[in-house]
Design goal:
homodimer; alpha/beta; 434 Repressor (Amino-terminal Domain); Rossmann fold; 6-stranded parallel beta sheet; 6-stranded mixed beta sheet; elongated; DNA-binding
Chain lengths: 388, 388
DNA sequence: CTGAAAGCGCTAACAA
DNA sequence: TTGTTAGCGCTTTCAG
């Protein structure tokens, strides 16, 4: 819903605008009036007027007001059953009156919990832009976490220095659990984290065969859906641009493609594979390769949407019409797919849900460190945008 | 660079794959072998073999090993100058040997610092997808933070409950500073945070005229660039789809448009305004309105890329050719702009840099809470993709 | 069911 | 320059 306010209604709001409009390469840093408002004096003396409490109320204060001991307040705060109704009421009231909130540091110091979970992102700096995956996982994680009172801290682990810092951080008990979203096949991180004994959940399966909790999209199934769709719409000469084979995503999507084509009685198609790197340029290059090698293909399954975009480009350059001559189906369904030209048919994975499930798994493992390793595979969905 | 590995080289990696392929709507949760490896027993007894240190080494341990007092170790850790070279060396060695890392909780308890800064996101759930802005700011923030040893915690503040939780969190000294990235005009959050006295930096200017540190793109200048570009390529009947006028982005981009058209001697153009909501649907609707009211416009400046996409759609539906009949320039330059059909000319803002500058400002304010409020305006850039 | 007391690991006076 | 001594605010036995 957008406002249908007529034009011209914005003038009054312009009053506060600063005219700063730096056009050069470096930012203009202007300074305006003093930041701190008309609050009470900060100095030592205590002026006549109201004096803000400089320190947050403590358990002690609550106890005193409620007429009980600190221990009892602590019990109430932590939901212990063994507190009399009267005590409970008094404490609750005192807490409300004082606006008491527990001090996490103090609590953490004694409990050795941190009420914090860490999301470690292990991402190539150059893949950095155009990555809705990350944002959406994050969204899901945050959403799932908001039902708890865990805090989410973000750690980048790109490069040795940052990686070690992240490792030290989790290794020294600064987090109750770790969520690892690692885009490449490098698996020193998972190993190191597991070694530190902190609960860990990954996005994507480990190719090394270790058992770690993880959630993943049904990449095999999704790829099969793509093949079935292509076959179902009459395509007969399929090929695929696979993702990197040191990642489970890459491996699984290729596997789904191969299984589906083979089962459909077309083992030759299972062999028409070029391995890309999930980038648009890679998709374009590998599609060109496929085209050179198998000039008569009439469908391409690209293992990512970016690669699908590249495929589109390669096909255009090769003079093939999409979808008339060659159909393209991509994996991952970002906004890009919707605006591609021609619009891309894609396999959608539930990225946000992935984040949610990761949290669910992590909480379960924190609760019971000895439970069996679990995997959650989220279904995928075919999104048809073009009549491919 | 993508690998040019021939097809077929993936087979061996498939061995570890689980066959789980849930196609239904609910996730399949399989359990595999026990998670925890062959680590030492967790129980009370201490088996014959190696026993891992269950607890991280403390200052005390370092002190003992180094033959000094805890205070001295603390001084070394915190970089105090008043430590003898010998003591320093001994402590450093002990720290290395033990792998000592300070306990943040303990430190925080006494220093009342948290070494944590909070990024509060105040976002509509429905704007959630297709929002590279957020991810890129985040990237910049994280990057800037990685030079310090501050931790980044993420807080969502959507809805009263979450908002209050976030407010309580920062209000109770759980963060040394707050970064606020608020997409709509609602300004109860900034006010509340400022009231709590925690250092705050915002993305975007406050419309209420309060002085708070902020960094923003040069929205006015960017809009001017758009107008100048349009005028420079021969367009004579400009119109704009503005953003919401309760946000500084909306206001400023409209202002730039008006200033530029007015200065170019075309005050009438300054009046051809429709107010959208930054969504594609809104852009489409408002462009349609503009078209109805001013049938002879030959250029549209859309205050966001999504709205530009909507404009494209509206123009197509109205039978106008882009860019031949009507040129479109959008603001914000996401991947979408690159794949729009026809390709969109846009004004790019340095979103990642924005995050970096926010951190810079925040650190400065933490260091000196009484400094003057500062603003950083980042330059924008015209990205021409079509010959509009 | 409740309170007293003992720290969790660290920093910051204050003495020496 | 160094060590000693108090706590920071909270949880958690252990008595009562």
């Amino acid at each position: 819903m957008d406002s249908l306010k007529g034009e011209g209604s914005a003038e009054e709001t312009l009053a506060a605008g600063s005219a700063t409009g730096a056009a050069g390469a470096s930012p203009a840093t202007g300074t305006t009036a003093a930041a701190r408002g008309a609050g009470p004096a900060d100095g030592a003396g205590d002026p006549a007027g109201v004096s803000l409490p400089r320190r947050a109320p403590t358990l002690e204060a609550v106890a005193e007001l409620a007429g009980v001991s600190r221990a009892t307040v602590s019990r109430v705060v932590n939901g212990s059953l063994k507190v009399s109704p009267e005590a409970h009421a008094a404490v609750t009231a005192a807490i409300a009156q004082l606006g008491y909130v527990p001090n996490r540091a103090a609590r953490s110091l004694v409990t050795r919990r941190t009420d914090t979970i860490v999301l470690i992102v292990h991402e190539r700096p150059d893949t950095v832009f155009s990555d809705p995956f990350f944002a959406n996982v994050l969204r899901g994680v945050d959403e799932a976490l908001s039902a708890t009172d865990l805090q989410l801290v973000l750690l980048q682990a790109q490069g040795e220095v940052k990686r070690d810092r992240a490792l030290r951080y989790v290794g020294n008990g600064h987090a109750d659990g770790v969520l690892l979203i690692s885009l490449h096949g490098d698996d020193v991180l998972p190993k190191a984290i597991r070694a530190s004994g902190v609960p860990l959940v990954m996005a994507g399966r480990l190719l090394t065969g270790q058992f770690v909790d993880y959630v993943d999209a049904d990449n095999v199934g999704g790829a099969r859906q793509a093949v079935e769709h292509l076959l179902g719409t009459g395509r007969r000469r399929l090929a695929t641009v696979a993702g990197p084979l040191d990642m489970s995503v890459g491996v699984d999507r290729l596997r789904g493609y191969r299984e589906a084509t083979t089962e459909a009685g077309d083992p030759a198609a299972a062999g028409r594979v070029a391995v890309g790197d999930f980038t648009e340029a890679g998709g374009q290059r590998q599609t060109a390769r496929l085209l050179a090698k198998y000039p008569d293909i009439d469908a391409v399954f690209a293992a990512s949407d970016l690669m699908a975009l590249g495929a589109l480009r390669a096909l255009r350059e090769a003079g093939r019409r999409v979808p008339d001559d060659v159909a393209v189906v991509g994996f991952d369904d970002t906004a890009l797919a919707a605006y591609a030209d021609p619009p891309l048919t894609t396999i959608r994975q539930q990225v946000e849900r992935m984040g949610q499930e990761m949290v669910r798994l992590l909480l379960a493992r924190i609760a019971d460190p000895d439970r069996e390793a679990a995997e959650v595979i989220l279904p995928t969905e075919l999104v048809v945008r073009a009549s491919a």
